[in-house]
């Protein structure tokens, strides 16, 4: 699958080659620390085809790595000083290993230094080392494309390789857990394991079916087997605010609702009438009805989507995307006016399916389109945002990219 240059909308944000990212981040490192790094590691952001708000209750999700990524240049230090610098708008942070723990440092350094802490906490490494870390990224921040996981995973892979920790697929599954701990405990954001897993374990050209109950993955070919289709990410430029409560509240409701249902039903392995299960399971707890219905229907959509992807029929996944969006909007209430505007405009312009991705409350939309229609769909989304008085969306290529890697 590709977006050919003739149909590529003018406003598509071009991915930056690894080499160029590595040069940028090496220059940032040298500027900040007056020394050379031990190497440069890159980890991608992600989009999710389907399976939203089911990762943290052990459901299956179908994310893929984006060709937009975060690069880190790293040097492990012999003392316990930790220094972090970013080419983003963030301030440099300097502290000591002992300063890092639950809730500290607040701000962006929690994602970087937090990974070192979490790797030591889980005994992936013997102790938290000092380190100099420079960061640059082409993943937009707060756009629901997981710039946070990209940062964590690049740091984790760097520290693992520099410390002799396994980085095969099993090792990467462990690192994903460490990164999620950094985000949950140090940063304090109650996210699931999907973002870190796909950033570390994805395969180029493939989507990754991740079973969040046991961490197993299956890679399904997407790009080469669907040459006439394109996945398109629409960043609505309305940043989500995951750390600030909405996501956490929603997650709590979903978890409470799922606790009332048998595992086999949640897994979708048993044929049941969703409405019957919802009615029974939420007796006396009316506020859990809609969250539960979202999970149970989303689990079924994932099941159907995986079957269609295995059959190389991406087009047939389109209606499932749109149904997922309606469920996230109506049953879970996590969409936003910007997300709805982009989804409706894309569908109105002929997209085969579209939905919000990520936790919600802003962020990005994933649209499935005929490759020849990408410019038409983009124009329609722009026009609609303009008419609705919303921020100007940006468009990103969504070829399925490779997992985190070392550049040099
Ligand atoms: P998302 O993961 O959807 O982009 P999050 O709110 O989870 O949004 O993570 C965004 C946060 O991650 C930023 O506010 C910042 O603290 C941190 N971050 C991500 N990328 C970078 C970067 N390149 N430099 C510094 N901090 C970053
Ligand atoms: Mg994030």
From TrEMBL:
Residues 114-200 form the GHMP kinase N-terminal domain. Belongs to the GHMP kinase family. GalK subfamily. Pfam families: GalKase_gal_bdg, GHMP_kinases_C, GHMP_kinases_N. SUPFAM superfamilies: GHMP Kinase, C-terminal domain, Ribosomal protein S5 domain 2-like. Residues 309-383 form the GHMP kinase C-terminal domain. This is Galactokinase. PANTHER family: GALACTOKINASE-RELATED, MEVALONATE KINASE/GALACTOKINASE. Keywords: ATP-binding, Carbohydrate metabolism, Galactose metabolism, Kinase, Nucleotide-binding, Transferase. The keyword ATP-binding applies. GO terms for molecular function: ATP binding; galactokinase activity.
